[in-house]
């Protein structure tokens, strides 16, 4: 009576089984009590002690020394948002279309658009985002804003350390989203 | 001692093996108290470090080098916390609960021998009483009053349940503990702790009394409320039992008492089964040997804590009454017979 399928020969033991029934052997522990039970209790205790002693000799394996050592993230990890500029001209990619705000299920993005001054352009398009705020205390990091954006102006970054003391400090404004993060989150390499 | 006898001449005092000058006794008691008092934080950090290593973690390593200042940080935190008393608590009893527990641990400490008499002037122990073991049990049972009063006076059902469990558990295991030590008493022919140690000059009592040692060990877990027999605390079901309603340094006092008791019971185990201060080297090395052996014993407690799950309450009781007490009785009978025959 190993795993499944063949159950010929077990019918005398289990009369309710029909030919072709799938049989799953359920392991049951031996009955407690008695001399055998006492021996098992002692033996299992010793085995447990051996296990923990092996961990002691092996040394710590699981812990990541967090503030010094950070968990690396996958390339597609959805962390804090970033706004982008064109690398050649330095103009903002965002044109203030508010599609991200429309796509946001948590309703945490606020965009106020304004016309570009041709002399002193902020973005590459006709309009630009005069105000761009993301309330990170509401954001669910679903990445829909990234998908909705027609100009790849907003992407999800890798940063995940966003704890703060005030809720107000969690509303990220445009300059904060445009700036490079101070610390780079380690990336997981291929195959890691 | 002579002063007390002079003041109260007709009281029946226990015989004392060796008496020093009063000032030596005072200095000695302060010294022993301070040493053990400062050992408690070491046991604390050692336990947390070792527990971590046993579970594949690092343990505390943030405060100070290797996290060694962690107990200090804990104590500062506990001291600066608000002192409060629950509305339903009985004021006076609620206050003396922790005090009684810590008092019992310190009283037992006075009987633990750390070494022999050095140069006919100073005995390296608190006091050497001819009925040492009886006093150990008397003072040890004292702790249970602290737990019971503290738990009952808190006016909380969890505390009450924890206190009741503590009472039942301590009473049950006290018997097994006492009977397990009777074998060593029979072999040594004395109730005095120093004489029991000296009787182990040729062979430690762990060899002839291995059964008694196992019983002592199991009962010691129950007596000190240490995991796996921490049913009085049982964080999962009773939220720390009798300690639930205590906070700040009162909670800290309970913890202090717990670790002191751990030290005391380890020291007693070493005294009764591992030859106490006996070891190679001159006499004055005795306290070092004692502390070393006790430290190893404490590590054993921590090892068991990291490994074993807590049994059910009825399992604990049936182990105590149905297994340990008969076994301990049998052990005493066999030992007595052998001592008479051989």
Give short descriptive properties of this protein.
heterodimer; A: about 190 residues; alpha+beta; two-stranded antiparallel ribbon; 5 strands; B: about 350 residues; mainly alpha; about 65% helix; globular
Whole-number radius of gyration of chain B? 20 Å
Low-confidence stretches of chain A: none
Shape of chain B: globular
- Strand segment tally of chain B: 2
What report would you give on this structure?
The complex is a heterodimer of chains A (192) and B (342). With 192 residues, chain A is α+β, with helices and mostly antiparallel strands. Chain A has a domain at 81-178: Alpha-Beta Plaits. Chain A is built from four helices and five strands. In chain A, the strands form two sheets. A three-stranded antiparallel β-sheet of chain A has the order 2-3-5. A two-stranded antiparallel sheet of chain A has the order 1-4. The longest helix of chain A is centred in the first third of the chain and has 25 residues, at 34-58. With 342 residues, chain B is an all-alpha fold. The two termini of chain B are 39 Å apart. Chain B has helices at residues 2-7, 22-54, 70-80, 91-109, 132-153, 157-188, 193-198, 210-223, 235-238, 248-273, 286-307, 313-341; strands at 113-118, 122-125. The longest helix of chain B is centred in the N-terminal third of the chain and has 33 residues, at 22-54. In chain B, helix 4 (91-109) runs parallel beside helix 10, helix 5 runs antiparallel to helix 6 and helix 8 (210-223) packs antiparallel against helix 12 (313-341). Chain B has one domain (2-341). At the A-B interface, helix 1 of A face helix 2 and helix 11 of B.
């Amino acid at each position: 009576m190993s795993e499944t399928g063949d159950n010929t020969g077990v019918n005398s033991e289990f009369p309710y089984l029909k030919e072709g029934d799938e049989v799953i052997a359920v392991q049951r522990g031996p009955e407690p009590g008695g001399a055998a039970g006492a021996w098992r209790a002692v033996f299992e205790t010793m085995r447990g002690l051996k296990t923990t002693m092996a961990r002691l000799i092996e040394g710590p394996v699981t812990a990541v020394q967090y503030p010094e050592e950070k968990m690396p993230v996958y390339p597609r990890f959805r962390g804090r948002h970033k706004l982008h500029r064109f690398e050649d001209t330095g103009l903002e990619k965002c044109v203030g279309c508010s599609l991200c705000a429309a796509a946001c299920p948590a309703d945490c993005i606020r965009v106020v658009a304004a016309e570009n001054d041709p002399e002193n352009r902020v973005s590459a398009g006709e309009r630009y985002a005069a105000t761009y705020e993301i309330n990170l205390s509401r954001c669910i990091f679903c990445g829909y804003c990234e998908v909705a954006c027609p100009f790849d102006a907003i992407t999800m970054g890798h940063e995940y350390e966003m704890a703060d003391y005030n809720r107000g400090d969690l509303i990220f404004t445009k300059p904060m989203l445009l700036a490079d993060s101070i610390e780079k989150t380690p990336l997981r390499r291929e195959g890691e | 001692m002579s002063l007390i006898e002079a003041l109260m001449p007709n009281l029946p005092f226990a015989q004392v093996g060796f008496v020093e000058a009063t000032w030596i006794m005072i200095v000695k008691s302060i010294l022993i108290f301070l040493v053990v008092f400062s050992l408690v934080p070491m046991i604390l950090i050692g336990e947390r470090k070792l527990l971590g290593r046993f579970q594949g973690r690092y343990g505390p390593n943030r405060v100070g080098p290797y996290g060694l200042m962690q107990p200090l940080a804990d104590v500062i935190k506990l001291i600066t916390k608000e002192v409060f008393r629950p509305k339903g608590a009985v004021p006076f009893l609620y206050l003396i609960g922790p005090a009684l527990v810590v008092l019992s641990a310190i009283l037992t400490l006075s009987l633990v021998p750390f070494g022999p008499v050095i140069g006919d002037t100073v005995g390296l122990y608190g006091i050497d009483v001819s009925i040492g073991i009886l006093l150990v049990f008397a003072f040890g049972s004292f702790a249970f009053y602290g737990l019971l009063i503290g738990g009952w006076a808190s006016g909380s059902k969890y505390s009450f349940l924890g206190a009741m469990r503590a009472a039942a558990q301590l009473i049950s295991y006290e018997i097994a503990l006492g009977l397990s030590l009777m074998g060593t008493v029979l072999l040594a022919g004395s109730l005095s702790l120093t004489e029991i140690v000296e009787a182990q000059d040729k062979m430690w009592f762990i060899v002839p009394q291995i059964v008694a040692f196992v019983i002592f060990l199991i009962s010691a877990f129950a007596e000190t409320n240490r995991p796996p027999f921490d049913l009085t605390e049982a964080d999962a079901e009773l939220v720390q039992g009798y300690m639930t309603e205590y906070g700040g340094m009162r909670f800290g006092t309970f913890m202090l008492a717990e670790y002191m008791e751990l030290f005391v019971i380890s020291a007693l185990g070493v005294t009764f089964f591992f030859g106490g201060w006996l070891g190679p080297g001159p006499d004055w090395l005795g306290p070092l040997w004692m502390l070393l052996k006790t430290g190893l014993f404490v590590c054993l407690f921590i090892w068991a804590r990291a490994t074993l799950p807590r049994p059910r309450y009825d399992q604990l009781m049936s182990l105590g009454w149905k297994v340990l007490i008969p076994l301990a009785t049998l052990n005493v009978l066999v030992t007595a017979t052998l001592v008479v025959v051989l």
